[in-house]
Amino acid sequence: MKDGSVDRLHEPLLQPSKTILDPQVEVKYDATTEDLQHLDHDDSVYVPFMQSDKYLDVSLRNASTTAYAKAGLFSKCFIHWLGPLLEKGINKTIVKDDVPLMVPEDRASALYNEFSANWPKQQEPNAVRGTLAKLFWKPFRRIGLIALVRLAVLFIGPVLIQSFVEVTGGNEKFKYEKYVLVIGLFLAKCTEVIAAHQYNFQCSRLGMKVRSSLISAVYRKGLRISSYARQSHGVGQIVNYMSVDVQQMNYVVIQLHNVWIIPGQVVLALGILLYYVGISALAGLVVMCLITLSTLWGSKKLEVYQRSIMKGRDWRMRSTIEALNNMKIIKLQAWDEIFQAGIEKARQAEYRALSGYMWFTAFNIFTLWLTPLCSCLAIFTSSVILGGSLTASMAFTTIAIVRSLQETLRVVPNTLIALTQASISLARLENFMWSDELKENSVERIPRTEDVAICVEGGTFKWSDELAVPNVLDINLHVAPGSLVAVVGKVGAGKSSLLNALLGEMLKISGTVQLSGTTAYVAQQAWIQNGTIEENILFGRAMSKPLYEKVIRACALTTDLAQMEFGDQTEIGERGLNLSGGQKQRIQLARAVYQDCDIYLLDDVFSAVDAHTGSELFRECILGALNGKTVVLVTHQVEFLPVADQILVMRDGRIVQSGKYDELLIGGTHFEALVEATNEALDRVSQHGTEAEKKYGEMHPNAETSKSFPSDDEGDKDFYPQHPRMVGSPSPREAFDIRTQGNFSTKLSQQEVNTVKTEGSPRLVIEEERETGTVRARVYWLYYTRAYGGVLLLALLIVQVIWQGLQIAGDYWVAFGSSGAGFDVRESKKFILIYGLLAISCGIFVFVRTAIVAIMGLVTGQSFYLGMLRSIFRAPMSFFDTTPSGRILSRSSTDQDTTDVFIPVCGGAVLAFGFQLLGVLFVTVQITWGICFLLIPVAVVYYKYQKYYLATSRELTRVDALTKAPIIHHFSESVSGFVTIRCFGQQARFIQLSIDRIDSNLRMDFHNQAATEWVGLRMEMIGILFLCISSVIQVTLPLGFIKPELVGLSLTYGMNLNICLYLGAWALCNLENRMVSVERLGQYTKLPSEAELEIKETKPPPHWPDRGTIVLQNLKLRYRPDTPLVLKGISISIEGGHKVGVVGRTGSGKSTLILALFRIVEAAEGQTIIDGLDVSTLGLNDLRSKLSLIPQDPTLFDGTVRSNIDPLEKHTDDEIWGALEKCQLSEVVRQLPGKLDSPVLENGENWSLGQRQLFCLGRVLLKRSRILVLDEATASVDSQTDAVMQKIIRKEFESSTVVSIAHRIPTVIDSDRVLVLDAGRVKEYGSPSSLLNDPYSNFSSLVREYSARSKSHVDLAALQ
């Protein structure tokens, strides 16, 4: 980390709230100085982005604060303050808004401020650990005092056993001693219980504060991290930082005090034992030490396996996120099974480590359950050997103390596991938190001047210090305010890198970069948020209706919104899944225009739009709305260049030419080569376009194709500056302007928005499914019968019964064996032998029990995961359109982790404590039968409390799970668009959104933990009451009525009654809460499925299709049952081997036609027939694997060059090199150190967009299908590369059927047929010549416009 790169972390997240006044809305936002550094403009238009944001959780602003804030000492001690929420939970189903906020000092914003204030200014080891220690040392110390109080009274109960035995034997030391003993026992146990639950609650609260601080810090870091460092931390890995590593830090807080509590309890217990049994106690201590050493060895192994688990989980989550983000292309390419197998492979690596982890956990549990038995056996044996007397009081005092230690030692594995996991998580977080950040001084913001808007002098940049060669170098650039600067160059020339350098996203090696004013950025790959179109355009700014409507028109969105049933209230799916590429591009362009910045950096915004829309965008937006703004436009559209004030030609990261259009047209230059390639393409268009234009002129003698057409809105004059219109427009804009009555936006009331109507709903993303009420019995049945049909559960019950019986038998043997006055040698051996056999038998069954729990957990967890994974991969695309990936990821991470580890442990604990409770009651009632009259009322109270608690806790757990997913979703969405967020200076708003989500989630966790301690405290009090009443009965009965040794046995068991009641209830309630994870996984194991991948009965011949004939008959398609038709009766026939170009306005249904052909969406009506076979009868893989596609959004995956170009691993190296040669990538790949095995990062981030497109071409060259579909395959490449790609496709696929969707007219002008789509209908279909012969045809109009706008710089000069 370079100096200064982390200084910004010291800035508090919240400055005093800055209120921004608006006549209608007032919302307080909290922003850092740094987050507002770009907002220093004196014009109010730069600040309103903080005024109104529909993404904010308004319920948090209106929510009350938890009653804990004003609770008194008594209320806090007994958690009485939680009563109103529990009362509400018993009367209704708890929802998010019912739960109050945490106290102000526990909220995310305040905690992050403290965290950042304590973060070191320079990098130092263990910074995360040190900062947490500084921040939370005081509350941690207070919790330690509570633990000390509990430790002080912990052994009072066991110590009193001897006195109780003596009193019942008639040895009363003073009058009323028996009542004093009962009162002392009651007070000691009450103090212990209250301290224990306060300790648990305060530890949980502190853990939540640690979690909140770290999530905020990780999110903040994610917004600061440099673009190159981001490649080292994939989205999946960062999600794991938040969902797994931070959770481990939360959990370790609860265990941390055990580091001194456990040794303290051992020392105290040893002192008491030495007092009562003498030197024999050391034998028990030796056994404990030996077992502890074996546990430590097991814990070392656990650490190794835990590292492997985290590594496997990172791999699995990374693969899962990559698959979810690219599910459409995976299905189109029939790669479902490959990617599913890849995730399963990652899971298998995790599962192997998890298996070792669970087995060693089982070993530790076994050794610790064995500890009291072996320790008591050692003490008794030693006492007998040394000639000591073994009395009932001594024996049961020993057993009680050792069992008290057992509860302590039982947490040793958990503590060691937590410390191990926390150590690993700390190292991972440390590594991430010190990752390289964006350098503050890369770009200098200067005051507005009339001379310069952008100034770069001697600029050399690279993505990271680790790179030997700069990516962009020797940049000298001076741009005057209001200039239009075009940047051109071949694929990989460094055009996008130049924009990133201007944004400060690259590491500046030398030179200066100065920008005057605020900056807007439109990325080459559109970044769209999940929300309505309106919310995406406003991007947090308050609504200005006149400005908003003019932006809509300037960005050519009017027609699109008019065609959408709900206009701009239509909800956009995650990553814009339900929008075309052109619509996504124009929405993010509208977002930038609406922000009204000074400098606009636009990265190839015309690549995804058609010629009509491109002309309109350039005219109305670039030359209109942005007139007077400084615009730097990266483009491959050479026809727009003559109007640019300056053109930059890039090659190999350098600006090799700079000047105006005329100045650069010099023979032999790079620019001349680019223009020449475009002219060659235009020549082909002109051959057809001239004749069409001539016919159009004959029929319209008064028409002047070089003149502008009238504006459709005179009211735009105050928005669009006066300038000449784009030349050559073939028809008035009204011809493409479909309007609705009044406004284009169909506004709905909130009630209408929330109601699912038969004609559709604006909401695309459906509410997450949530069960209510008790977790159904079928969920438990589903879990416990998933592994071997429930046989393991039956075996576990049998083993548990035998084990509990053996334990009780051993204790009874001690009672009867120690009842005599003393032992002779023979009796001593017999006593020790039988007790030893019972102990060993008990140990064996403990081992069998832990083994069964481990096997059941592993098999069941794996079964659920694979079932969910396979169900997700078989789900139709509509599922992914309507389901945010955060929901799937939360199930794949948190819920799966719970199912893998916690549910087996909780399930085993329920059985263990349940049977222990039955054992305690059996012994107590058998000895003191009168106590049985208390059983029924105690059971009723126990049940009522549990039911009262569960009604709220269960729903809090469900809402907690629902509120976790938005944290992950918001984070992954933010990481994807962090360049855009930083450019617009919106870090403060997005941080506030993150804080809202964290607070919303943690308030559920906080009250759920409080509810757990509330019920636990009351359960233990019931147990204490039961114990004390039993004790009173035993000490008040006549002498000899109960044998003293049985009183000792009863008290030994009774001492554990309160903890058994609590732990039994806790384990049962915790199991039910954890079962929510099974419930959620179960929902995703039964998702609706696509058609079968393979159908043997209708499997096509091996060489099908051999001709490539495609017939569409009345094809109608809608995306989901409740949505309108998108394709409205398409009927065409494509001859085998023909080349068909598909054109039409953006959103006309071109890409949807591809989805229909590949059956990504099933047809509502009609047929698609390929070479005589109805594709609806075929298996999906049989169909999709026979077709080839180059998609609109080129996709590369984490792997190597080889795995990306040949995912199926079917081709030799020679074949791969041949394909790379043809697609112009071989030279680049040969220069890489690893050649074909060179790495490709997630999303292909180390390759330019154009290079990714060439990779996609290489794939189809290897596959060589009879039918090839091109979806804007050359949109992201320059004219030269486009010409080469078209030449390769014509040559290599000469005999194949090629269906090409294109916005570039030269791409389709040589086709055999042209299909013109409009609003989902066939507008025209025929040969290019026949369509051009009709001067009124849409295609003729399109060619005329393209030809006219590209004629020459002489005609275009008028635009200046």
Automatic annotation (TrEMBL):
SUPFAM superfamilies: ABC transporter transmembrane region (SSF90123), P-loop containing nucleoside triphosphate hydrolases (SSF52540). The keyword Transport applies. PROSITE patterns: ABC_TM1F, ABC_TRANSPORTER_1, ABC_TRANSPORTER_2. It comes from Riccia fluitans. GO terms for molecular function: ATP binding. Belongs to the ABC transporter superfamily. ABCC family. Conjugate transporter (TC 3.A.1.208) subfamily. It is found in: Membrane. Residues 143-421, 794-1073 form the ABC transmembrane type-1 domain. This is Uncharacterized protein. The keyword GTP-binding does not apply. Residues 686-716 are annotated as: Disordered. The chain crosses the membrane at residues 143-165, 273-297, 354-371, 377-402, 780-803, 832-860, 901-921, 927-945, 1022-1041, 1053-1071. Residues 447-677, 1110-1344 form the ABC transporter domain. SMART domains: AAA. It comes from the Eukaryota. Gene3D superfamilies: ABC transporter type 1, transmembrane domain, P-loop containing nucleotide triphosphate hydrolases. Residues 686-698 have a biased composition (Basic and acidic residues). It is a multi-pass membrane protein. GO terms for cellular component: membrane. Its main location: membrane. Keywords: ATP-binding, Membrane, Nucleotide-binding, Repeat, Transmembrane, Transmembrane helix, Transport. InterPro entries: AAA+_ATPase, ABC1_TM_dom, ABC1_TM_sf, ABC_transporter-like_ATP-bd, ABC_transporter-like_CS, ABC_transporter_C-like, ABCC_6TM_D1, ABCC_6TM_D2.
